[in-house]
Amino acid sequence: MPREAKRGEVIEIRIAIQHPMETGFRFDLMGRSIPKNVVNSLVVRYNGAEIFSAEMGSGIAANPYLQFYTVAEASGALVFEWVDDSGERGSERATIAVNG
Amino acid sequence: METPRRRFFSMLAGFTAFVLLPGRNAHAAIESLAPLVNKITKGAPLREGRVKLEIPRLADNGHSVPLRIAVDSPMTPADHVRTLTLLSEKNPRPVMATFHLGPKAGRPELATRVRLATSQRVLVVAELSDGSFWSASAEVEVTESACLDAS
Known about the structure:
Number of domains of chain A: 1
Structural class of chain B: alpha+beta
Oligomer: heterodimer
Strand content of chain A: over 45%
Number of domains of chain B: 1
CATH topology of chain B: Immunoglobulin-like
Largest sheet of chain A: 5 strands, mixed
Helix content of chain A: under 10%
CATH class of chain A: Mainly Beta
């Protein structure tokens, strides 16, 4: 996403999460089923307010990639938080300076 | 009286109906997903239009198929896209993802990459703030499927 924007401008946000998005349909070399483990939720907050969220399943490709938009309203931070089926959480933060 | 000419015309009519059938198949996929769609729309009608789904007609690899959704919406507090649901006709889990947008999304567009188990139709359902549901679908030919068996 851009580091700077004009107030009211629509900005593009792109996020890629490194994750295997294990479907639960695969087997390891010993023939054991590999349990399903996907990033099932992603929530994006802009200065605390939710602007976008996703519920994902095994139909989303490994290393899930998302591109979406928001309106640059005020300088501050966007916080991206996700959680997978095993309960592992991740988060990322990006700041933006809004002019005008 | 059955004249050869009349017979020819009736044959022609039958043939035309046959040729037109593939167009109607577009709804067949939606029909197999009907119970799911009904759950999403809570019984409200699902209309075609206002949504654009860009996805390759031919995907070499079903593991990662890029797609882009665009909805015709002003994205104002009064009129915006609430959710986008991506459905697959033939994946073992038909609901691929649900995205929650809102007036703060600014532009009713989204891009991601999906897994497709086999050649099939992909359906996107958009829920608008006025409670209406709109859809678009596209047929994707997958040459190498996202493997579901041992690998």
